[in-house]
Write a structure and sequence with these properties.
354 residues; alpha+beta; six-stranded antiparallel barrel; Aminopeptidase; eight-stranded mixed β-sheet; 9 helices
């Protein structure tokens, strides 16, 4: 990952994009892909598609731009902001955190209040639901608060991108800005290699609310195959490493993860694995016997069935403000998808032989 590619990743990670409020990060993504795409288009909800023109077949690489977050649900008489969730926000990690409320007049800083340990009955400690938590923005009255924020304003944790050791890094919203980074970079590398297939890079919205953007895009995306790039759980941390029989075998830095079963089309799976062998890239395997929980589950039932695959990016501490990834996995995923596009060139579809 060179300096330009890393700057793009950092820009994605530091641009707030809670589900339903993705326009700002989509502008970052569109600006990057416009430098090499033959065409870039967006729809009414902000899904973005970059096209690299080529021959048959057409393959799509998609990530989702949205992140989980919070939302202003109300303001009490003392000016404290009451909360609701955006997507699958975890109430166990929100208290005591710095946040930003993204209001019409700009970002309003605040903190999610937590009663001091000295004043709590710790024997009776329970995790409060997000609806029972509050943000303190430093005002004293409801009127002061309403001058700054409105009900429905989205909220994100105010956490920086942190360099860890080696090629590892931590940030909020790795889920799934790393996926849209890979989709864009895979398309750029395919364009640079002048692959003969047509490549679509896609950045969807509202995946955390039920894969809604992928349903919109899948309705008219003229792709012969689609790869949804999303994070997946790395289980090599102390809290999970003893339970690998239950949670799988995924390790940070072990390479991108090819899911098998359910929405993952066997021909696409096979071709991606062959491409990995051909260019000597490590891949990990994951069982998905019922569903992937990603945009692949929306793409594969679109238009009578688009052969699809979920390509996972190992991620520790998902849906927290301190998600950890290895950038080597991202580079390997981008290289793998570019190789998959090259290997797909000239292929007459991906249908199974029945």
């Amino acid at each position: 990952m060179d300096g330009t590619q890393r700057a793009f990743l950092d820009n994605l990670l530091t641009t707030p994009s809670p589900s339903g409020f993705e326009a700002e990060v989509q502008r970052v993504w569109v600006d990057y892909v416009s430098a090499f795409a033959d065409e870039v288009r967006t729809d009414e909800y902000g899904n973005a598609v970059a096209v690299i023109e080529g021959g048959d077949p057409a393959v799509a690489f998609a990530g989702h731009a949205d992140e989980i977050g919070l939302m202003v649900n109300g303001i009490d008489e003392d000016g404290f902001v009451r909360l609701s969730r955006v997507g699958g926000s975890d109430p166990t990690v929100s208290k005591g955190q710095h946040v930003e409320i993204h209001a019409e007049g700009g970002a309003v800083p605040g903190v999610v209040g937590q009663t001091a340990i000295h004043l709590r009955d710790t024997d009776a400690d329970e995790v409060e639901d997000v609806a029972e938590q509050h943000v303190d923005i430093g005002v004293e009255t409801e009127a002061e608060a309403r001058e700054l924020v409105d009900v429905g304003d989205p909220i994100t944790f105010d956490t920086p991108v942190r360099e860890l050791q080696g090629s590892r890094m931590a940030a909020r919203g790795m889920d799934n800005r790393v996926g849209i980074w890979v989709a864009a970079e895979a398309a750029r590398r395919a364009a640079e290699s002048d692959v003969d297939a047509t490549v679509y890079a896609v950045s969807t919205v509202q995946e955390e609310l039920g894969k809604q953007g992928a349903k919109m895009v899948g309705f008219d995306l003229d792709a012969d195959a689609a790869v949804a790039v999303d994070v997946t759980h790395a289980v090599d941390s102390p809290d999970l490493s003893k339970e690998r029989d239950q949670h799988g075998e995924i390790e940070l830095g072990g390479g991108p993860v090819v899911a098998r079963g359910s929405s993952n089309h066997p021909e696409v799976v096979a071709l991606v694995r062959e491409a990995a062998d051909e260019v000597d890239l490590p891949v990990q395997l994951q069982a998905a016997g019922r569903a992937t929980g990603t945009d692949a589950d929306a793409f594969y039932t679109s238009q009578g069935g688009i052969p699809s695959l979920n390509l996972g990016l190992p991620n520790r501490y998902m849906h927290t403000p301190v998600e950890v990834i290895d950038t080597a996995d991202l580079d390997a995923a981008a290289d793998l998808l570019a190789a998959f596009a090259e290997r797909s060139a000239g292929r007459d579809g991906f249908g199974v032989d029945v």
